Amino acid sequence: MTRILLTGYMGAGKTTLGRALAERLGMTFIDLDQYIEQRFRKSISQIFAEKGEEGFRDIERRMLHEVAEFEDVIISTGGGTPCFFDNIDFMNSKGITVYLKVPVERLFIRLSIARKQRPLIKDKNDEELRAFIAEQLAKREPHYSKAQYSFVADRLEDKEQIRESVEAFCRTFNLP
Predict the structure, then answer these.
(1) What is the mean pLDDT of each run of 10 residues along the chain (176 residues)?
(2) 169, 17 in Cβ contact below 8 A?
(3) Of 66, 93, 63, 90, whose CA–CA distance to 78 is shortest?
């Protein structure tokens, strides 16, 4: 029974690497945000608007506890998931936790492309976005660094880099 929980800032590649890794290992992939959206039949933005961040974080915690019982699964957590309640300690108790580390500049490039799909950053210009990422990452780093392992995920820009990153991940963590 294997359970791998990926954590890191938005744009770190948790979904991209997690999905490719699950396919390579023949495991189930779960994106926690997508799981929440399917369960509640609402977007994360709608849940935030209706319940506020506190309400969302409570739902997120309950859904984390639910998916953390699944077996042979790779779970991509939300960027804030490990930063609230005892979530990171709980995650560490349930499986292998891996912090996907990505430099601010790479996060900026990735997020500037996907800015419109992300409510927290959609209205920021480049300068504001770069500063926001650096500030938020600094605040969250103490939580992320409580993961059991870290993995540099700065090479996920195309299929070949994703494949190479999956192979490097498997070698690093002695996965088949």
Answers:
(1) 95 97 98 97 92 95 98 97 98 98 97 84 94 97 98 97 98 94
(2) yes
(3) 63
Pairing assessment for the beta strands 73-76 and 96-101 based on DSSP bridges: unpaired
**How many whole angstroms separate alpha carbon 26 and alpha carbon 82?**
26
Query: Do 33 and 80 touch, CB atoms closer than 8 A?
Result: no
pTM above 0.85, yes or no: yes
Number of H helices, E strands in the chain: 7, 5
Q: List phi, psi (to 5°) of 146.
A: -80, -10
**Rounded Cα distance, 166 and 9, in Å:** 19
Report the distance separating Cα 149 and Cα 143, nearest Å.
Answer: 12
- Between CA 154 and CA 157 the distance in angstroms is 8
Instruction: State the sign of the Cα–Cα–Cα–Cα dihedral 35, 20, 138, 86.
Output: positive
Can you tell me whether residue 120 is helix, strand or coil? coil
Confirm if 82 and 91 have CB atoms less than 8 A apart. yes
